[in-house]
Amino acid sequence: MKPTLLLIWACVLVYPALAQQTQSIYYTASTSADGKSNITLGPYAGTVGGTHTVTLGAFAGQSNSGMANIFVGYAAGLLTTSGSYNAFLGYYAGYTNSFGVHNSFMGPYAGYSNTTGRYNSFMGSNAGNFNTTGEQNSFLGYYAGAYNTSGGNNAFVGYAAGFQNTTATANVFVGAQAGYNNTTASNNVFIGYQAGLNNTTGAGNVVVGPSSGTSITTGSNNLMLGANTQPTSGAIQNSVAIGANATVALNNAIVLGDPNNTNIAVGIGTNAPQFPLDVRGTINLRNNGRIKFAHLTNSIRQGTTDQFLTVNEQGETVLARNQLRINSPSEWSDKVFAPTYQLRSLPAVATYVAQHGP
After folding, report:
1. How many whole angstroms separate alpha carbon 94 and alpha carbon 64?
2. Is 284 helix (H, G, I), strand (E, B) or coil?
3. CB-based burial of residue 102 (10 Å sphere; 0-12 exposed, 13-18 middle, 19+ buried)?
4. What SS3 string covers the chain?
């Protein structure tokens, strides 16, 4: 029995449903003029040939002349010409791939528009749909990286993660809609549900936590750690907010904790801080370092020097008064060098010392 008939009978016995739905089955042996060592099933599938290729589905790999490709699904890799070492699985997966190599697209319309992009892995319906020349991307999830065109070295994981990304590179977005509106900004890391959702052109940001960094639009080089940590302006630069609901309002600033939570305590050298800043050890103020007291009612007026800085029994720095008083010299000086001063006699001095002590 001829090899072709053997293959047909095998398909009928092992895959009866496939045999019923497939209009025609083609087998190209190594001696075929259309290609070498190929397996092709489906009308108009792999009609050009190629080498060492598996093509399953109507119009799948129709124009393929490359080698070592796998096309499974209706019109999967239909326009692939010389691209090689690709695996496209799904309805219209890798449809327009022409010269792209070493790509793996799985899911309906995954990598649909890819032309020369290479070393990409797209998994999920419409993942990397509009990618054309982007290289070395990994998109996992429904519509993940859908609008990426030429951006490379990106990793998007989750529903619509990096959805609007077009030309940006070296981003990592993990979580549903993480980095959703990012377009051209590169070198960002967004982890968590809708993390960095509205960032468009801000670069070099690290955002970790659900709904964190959603206020960032054009700001760059920020660090947001914790659920719903935010800058108060989308253009904030070089700032840090740490802790759930922490917000930072200035460039080049660090904020710890929710500003609306009066119970926030920060410990250095202690795991049980009792105060907003609780330090175990020595605080060293270098060069022009200062301690500034805020919210004072008024300044000490000249001449009211009966107040001084001290520490109370609770270790608190306070302004004290009526503890030390220095009056006018006329009130305490004994004027021993005055011309009219009369030195007391020794018996008088002895009597004074005996009465008042040494």
Report:
1. 12
2. coil
3. middle
4. CCHHHHHHHHHHHHCHHHHHHCCCEEEECCCCCCEECEEEECCCCCCCCEECCEEECCCCCCCCCCECCEEECCCCCCCCCCCCCCEEECCCCCCCCCCCCCCEEECCCCCCCCCCCCCCEEECCCCCCCCCCCCCCEEECCCCCCCCCCCCCCEEECCCCCCCCCCCCCCEEECCCCCCCCCCCCCCEEECCCCCCCCCCCCCCEEECCCCCCCCCCCCCCEEECCCCEECCCCCCCCEEECCCCEECCCCCEEECCCCCCCCCEEECCCCCCCCEEECCCCCCCCCCCCCCCCCCCCCCCCCCCEEEEECCCCCEEEEECCCCCCCHHHHCCCCCCCCCCCCCHHHHHHHHHHHCC
The amino acid that residue 282 corresponds to is: T
The CA distance from 70 to 84, in Å, is: 9
Return the closest-CA partner of residue 180 out of 167, 193, 163, 195: 163
pLDDT, tens digit (0-9, with 9 covering 90-100), for 229-275? 999 999 999 999 999 999 999 999 999 999 999 999 999 999 999 99
Residue 55 bridge partners (DSSP) = 40, 71
Q: Alpha helices of the chain — where are they, by DSSP H?
A: 3-14, 16-21, 329-332, 346-356
Task: Compute the distance between CA of residue 349 and CA of residue 336 in angstroms, rounded to an integer.
Answer: 14
Please report the sign of the dihedral spanned by the C-alpha atoms of residue 142, residue 197, residue 120, residue 34: positive
- The single-letter DSSP state of residue 67 is B
CA 22 to chain centre: 47
Alpha-carbon torsion, ordered 24, 28, 32, 36, to 10 deg: 140
C-beta atoms surrounding 12 within 10 Å: 13
For the whole model, what pTM was predicted? 0.76
At residue 7, the pLDDT reads: 46
What would the pLDDT profile of 167-216 be if each residue is shown by its tens digit? 999 999 999 999 999 999 999 999 999 999 999 999 999 999 999 999 99
Residue 12 has pLDDT above 70, yes or no: no
